[in-house]
Amino acid sequence: MTLPTSRRHFLQLAGAGLAVASTGVPLPGHAQPAATIAPGPVLLNFNECPYGPSPAAQQAARDSIAGSGRYQFALAGQVRDAVAAQAAVAADHIRLYPGSSEPLNRAATLWTGPQAALVVADPTFETLGDMAKARGAHVQKVPLRADGAHDLRAMAAAAHAQPTGLIYVCNPNNPTGSISPPAELAWLLANKPSATRVLVDEAYLQYSDQPSLIAQVAQRDDLIVLRTFSKLYGMAGLRLGVAAAHPDRLRELARLGDNPLPVPALAAALASLHDPELIPQRRLQNARVRQATIAWLGKRGFSCVPSEANCFVVDVQRDGTAFAKAMADNGVVIGRSWPIWPQRVRVTVGTEEEMAAFRQAFAKVAGVPV
Ligand code: PLP
To answer: Is 99 in the pocket of ligand 1 (CB under 6 A)?
Structure first.
């Protein structure tokens, strides 16, 4: 990949006053990027948090290394208890995994197969669907509504039309960042086939002000809610995820094999959970940068699905794959297209400085003014 506009070069342009002005609001302490000038391209492709683990989480992870020769099961218990207390559920309704990909894969293995279909939105995060397909399950894709919400009525109908093991609801959705409102989720839970389980993936929920469904696992045994420390907490490379469900469901998931947790991730997670400012500050910063970017695109005629997460999908009005390649050639790596929307691409919300680089590259590739 050639990088005619390297990030460093862009920052030189910015310093020369050629970059678009930022929103002018100082970054809150927790939102400070780890390194302002990093070599290489701007990475807006994997919905990672550009700020990384919080300073306290980084310190806790560093401090934990010396004790990492032990499994530290007690520390894992502390993190589980802290997650349970914040979610207002009993600790036996929470199980931790090294990332939320693992319970997603386990859920597909357990609850989908040749006689148990999976119903998902289209587009959505594909890990669960890929695993279900590999298990021989029929994966029924239901297009998102025009407002970006899951079409939960159509998804329930699809689940009634064939033996369905699992319905997957990603809220906010990846790639769109769009929300499915709580009243509609309640309707789904009341109207789905009784034997079908619902997995709600809340990987991005902390970026929105939508309520979590996690407390509802205390009332029902057919709901699994997943969370992750990979997104707002900035711990994608450290690996920690949460499965919340009735203890019977958690036991079924756990029966597929034990896998102790990385100690630095546990230490960083505990420090993150104990910081009451981290979620509101990062949520605010992300919303500010996302809204400014989407407004900039809108003024130039490029529409986005409404997003409440750290990603959004923009209609680039031409082949999305070629557009993403041209962006990468200009030093900004964005996400990909989904087959249902070949002219739209996913973009991760980065720092203000990264999104200024995004605007520069986008303007050049799309042929619009900065
Ligand atoms: N769920 C969603 C919706 C995601 O977008 C991702 C990662 O991008 C994951 C789950 C998996 O994240 P992790 O395994 O890092 O927790």
So the answer is: yes
Nearest by Cα to 93 from 206, 205, 259, 248: 248
What are 2-38's pLDDT values in tens digits? 333 344 343 333 333 333 334 334 444 555 555 454 6
Closest CA to 157 of 196, 127, 186: 196
Position 31 scores a pLDDT of: 52
Q: Is 180 in the pocket of ligand 1 (CB under 6 A)?
A: no
**Domain coordinates of the chain in residue numbers?**
5-54+277-366, 57-273
- Determine if ligand 1 sits within 6 Å of the CB of residue 234: no
Confidence at 302, pLDDT banded by 50, 70, 90:
very high
Q: How many residues does the chain have?
A: 370
Determine if ligand 1 sits within 6 Å of the CB of residue 297. Answer: no
Q: What's the topology of domain 57-273?
A: Aspartate Aminotransferase; domain 2 (3.40.640)
Which residues have CB under 8 Å from 181's CB, separation 6+?
149, 210
Best residue among 228, 233, 312 to mutate for probing ligand 1, ranked by most atoms within 8 Å of CB:
228
pLDDT at 198 over 80: yes
